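User: My collaborator sent over this chain with a note saying "see what the structure looks like." That's all I know about it. Can you take a look?
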Amino acid sequence: MCKIENNLQKIFGRFLSIILILLFLAPAASYANTSVTNVPVGDIGTLLPFWSVLPFAGILLSLALIPLFAPHFWEHHFPKVSAFWALVFAVPFLYFFREIAVHEIAHIIIIDYIPFILLLWSLFTVSGGIHVQGTLKGSPGVNTFILLIGTILASFIGTTGASMLMIRPILRSNAWRQYKVHTVAFFIFLVSNIGGVLTPLGDPPLFLGFLHGVPFFWTLKLLPQMIFASFILLGMYFILDSFYYKKENKLALKSPEIEPLKIEGFHNFIFLAGIIGGVLFSGMARLGEVNIYGIHQSFENLIRDAVLIIMGLSSLVLTNKEIRQGNEFTWAPILEVAYLFGGIFITIIPALAILKTGEKGALAFLIKSINTPAHYFWASGALSSFLDNAPTYLIFFNSEIGKFYPGIPEAQSVARLIMERIPYLIAVSAGAVFMGANTYIGNAPNFMVKSIAEEAGVNMPSFFGYMFKYSIPILVVLFTIMTFVFYQ
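Assistant: Without extra context I'll predict from the sequence alone. Here is the result:
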């Protein structure tokens, strides 16, 4: 295996070197007769060719495929892979577009990346200071109730926070059982994905929408779809778990001692309330703007970010280390997100700029091919399933802006989108969040839950085993039904 991965590393390095050279030379012909330094920032998408989105595709494909086929290589080199794809795009972009390129990169870092990482970091840090101790009888009723609580919590402490908070209690409660793989699968469906659809705190895609002008409570419009999907999945789970429960050896239940649940680090719920308050404040207050290296950032957003930092640091200082040790808390997951999304946010710049130009840009074929809410639901969902739901949301969010309001400033186009095209934005939001559950890599908590379950002795299915045994026969069928119910 090591020899294979060493060879893969050499091949990967040579391949990327060739791609870097080609991508750097490619724009020379495209811009030879264009004075790009005088192009207005808002018109940059009309000049960017199709090749400019290839680094974005490259980093997403790397994220999807390398962990599956070369996990050891990925574990040690994923920051380098992310940095490489960022440079593949940024070097020629800066060379040919100079000040415009600097502005675009600074804009996405200040407006999108930093607030995005701060929210995830604060929720991850604070929820990691809450430890649910004890066990319950892993019966169908108890398990269904735990899944219900986790599904509700996901919209308020994030799918990552809810997953890390609830996965170990449900694993401990079912440790005596032989049949429990289905419990982890439905946990991924509900707690790690579908439950996070009601607020921008729930899942990263919705927070990105919030950063671009979608009101905080607008996502409550997805409540009917969330209830529909959750009710069906919880009902299916209860029936399935009842079937397996009858096959269990009940004598095994008497061996472990059943302890009542106990919450440690309860004060962290105060910090969670502070995070919610900070995000709500930034969506309601209007305090003016400050110019940061040519980027206009509002004071209320800066206050929000400060609140997130204060809440996270307060949790670190005031929470006993033993509580985090009980949660097996480490910084590795959030560091991985920070490294990978640094590259993703840089490489996504041309895709977003081109999509905003509508049919005038190099991605006109995408704008023309997706027309109905059902199209957006499945297009965003399919991409979320195999790549990542946050950049997927941004792609189709901007494609809707480019399709319906090309050339209109973002603030105005988003204001019109959330009023005039409600089914379209709902479809993208639901597709990105719900269908992240279709694979282990659709949303960050999925793989984390799988790893924790395997450490607890659960024999989880492979990548494709999960799809063919659980997500395709259950979720794909459910989403097909939802298409006829909600998008006709």
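A starting point for your reply to your collaborator: DSSP finds 20 helices and four strands in the chain.
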